[in-house]
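task queued by scheduler; priority normal; single chain, no ligands, no partner chains; default sampling; output format set to structure tokens
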Amino acid sequence: MTSETTVEPSAVDDISVVAQASDTRQYVTFIAGDEVFAVEMAPVQEIIRVPSVVRVPLSPPTLNGLANLRGKVLPIVSLRRALGFVERDSDDASRAVVIDLGQPLGFVVDRVASVVGVDASKIEGVEGIRGTVNTELLTGLIKDIGGHAMVMILNFEKLIAQEFAQIAALSSKQGTVAAQGLGKSAGDESLRAIDAELHLVSFDVAAQEYAIAIEDVQEIVQIPEQIVQVPHAQSHVLGVMTLRNRLLPLVALRRMFGLSEQDANEQSRIVVVAIGGASVGIVVDNVNEVLRVAKRDVEAMPSMLARDGDMADITDICRLDKGQRLVSIISTANLFRHSAIKEALTTVNANTGKTTDAKSGSDGIADDEQVVVFRLGAEEFGVPIDSVQEIVRVPQTLTHVPKAPTSVEGVINLRGSVLPVVDLRRRLGLDTIARNDGQRIVVFLIRGVRTGFIVDAVAEVLKVPRHSIEPAPSLSAEQSTLLARMANLEKQKRMLQLIDPVYLLGEGELSGMVGLAA
């Protein structure tokens, strides 16, 4: 006799599934396509509404993406796609059945029908239907259950092995870092080159380009929705914002320089700089690039224009593009030596009851990882800031090289050196897009070879708490190497896929790049 416990479909929402003590076997039944399937209760952790996902390059085609489930990263798989059914968008009835067979995975089904208890006598093997039906992914059939003449028991263990075959093989690779760092000669040459260069973050204020030394920049963030106004503060101070559980004073550079006011927009950014042990946010119109500028292209501010003493904000001028582009270098130390600014920051601290002394400003530094965040489509990716040589605009034309590696978009002349340029979308197997003004080239030094990668947009420089960084689910051999970690910023409802640049080029591609850059 069949013992059946049914949960009405309308009652199956975001529920944790707990197997009841019973002599019968517990199953969850669900619909995918036009078929009814069942799965044993034991590996089913819960049933949830279909969450929004972050799409992952280099992953199996059945993967919709990664979701945040109560602070944990959960891969979400399309069961329709895995079974070869016609695709359709999820609706209010769709659910994700979370199954743990070594690694939790959420399988999107059209509808969950019921949770049932089935007597073993009602379960048949699949031998009798092998001649007419592909039974590779089935473990059995349930007869006369829940109003259905026949329900197929799906073998998720075999389905997972088929779709994510590399997962078992990847365990030995986890935590392995390639000992393919810079050779001694390449590293020495790189250090000598850096000694002869300035590393700057450039930005616009009132159509004029300025820059700050990158060592003074802690991070670059977007303008928050709420800025708290501080009573009796100087006009330069916009207010304070919360940045990872601490208050950050915000200063408008337009006001400091006596320029016309402009409301913040989508391009506006806050450049967070270190002043001694404290942090201050400088509001600018937009951030342009990360530049490496040869010291020979930098001149001190002409003496007749330079200000003396506390007002020596701009110390040097960069001459780029054969003198057609002038960038003013701001000294943050001098900028915040102004008596008015010191008074303003003191007022902010007094009114908020907080301090920005060296201790509070550096408390979290050891627990943060600084990354450059860029976008490809709607997804966000991050790379360690130390790995980024510079960030430059995409020129109007790239020189295409015959018989270059397929991943190479072309080469450009970057201050007298040939730089191979790769379209990162193509490298990650994503659809390519037309060139636009928002795109940038992020330049890395990969095992001694300088290579640029085109991204859709550079968003910010961000400090990510290390406790928010976790290993990414292993979905394919290439993905688990190149995108091995994720920053799960649960409070911000963001997930950053962290790229290890050393794996952006394979050995064959690397040798090809050496030939192009020679």
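post-processing summary
- The mean pLDDT is 77.
- The CA atoms of residues 425 and 433 lie 8 Å apart.
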